[in-house]
Amino acid sequence: MTNAAQSIDLQAVDAYLSEQLPGYGGPLTAQKFETGQSNPTFLLQTPEKKYVLRRKPPGVLLKSAHAVDREFRVQKALEGSDVPVAAMHVLCQDDAVIGSDFYVMEHVDGRIFTDPTMPDETPQARTAIMDEMNRVLAALHSVDINRAGLSDYGPEGNYFERQITRWTKQYRASETHDIPGMNALIEALPKAMPPDDGQRTLVHGDYRIDNLIYAHEGSACLAVLDWELSTIGHPYADLAAVIMQWQMPPGREGRGLAGIDRAALGLPSDGAFIADYCERRGLPRIERFGFYLSFTFFRMAGILQGVAKRAQDGNASNPEHAERLGRYVPLFAQHGLEALDR
């Protein structure tokens, strides 16, 4: 039986877009992107234009997960800002069309660096690309959420307290076997939480270089992708997520920089990236960064556990890849515990 997450009803999508999207004209073809474990993503192509469709996966889902309506809303709000996003076209919340919510957006033609070492680039190009990544992150956290109409995009209160509670529940709901490291991390994180410093900004939730589209020439970022985990929260969660990813092994699976001679490749050190970010936002030195780093390892472990559970339940976008990702949960838990000791 074909996994419903692997395909879409082209006839239904074609009919819907013919009615809802000005200038649209079929016939329509679709190809599923290999990336996008959470919300299946498809390249739509007509004789005249390309689009991208992102859908909520079918089946029974965790509460508040896969909110494609939120992805649509935040990107729509950011159009024309210093944070580059794809243009949003239509949001469909009628399950009768293809079985779940979906939205259609502009197809942005550019480069995605799945490997942060960027092996085909020069050291100078890598430096510029990473600096642009830093600029966009600082711009994202500098968005005036009131002017953007996003002040209600996330609840008030301590972001980290809220997130730890949420992801503990999500993890327990998708737990497939006992992982002692996760149990220890769940117990330790709340005790290590710094006092709330009052920062309340838009946060992406999964900010890393392979969620950015760059121009084919030069270092300009054309769009930030994958806004599913975005909310109003604390900006250090995004910053720590970048540093977390770099602690992973290099290569297709880890997509990290562990053991890499960054200076020789023109890549920034953790400290240099953090310092540049702070300078752009006019911030002092960040105290107790180990907690923020530990939190991002914990949250990613929770995300990967959810991916593994969907693979077990038959709802994963890419079941084989999802199962492999689930094996990283103990490693992320261990890294989270180690970060607390820094």
TrEMBL record:
CDD domains: ACAD10_11_N-like (cd05154). It comes from the Bacteria. Residues 30-253 form the Aminoglycoside phosphotransferase domain. Pfam families: APH (PF01636). This is Phosphotransferase family protein. It comes from Ruegeria spongiae.
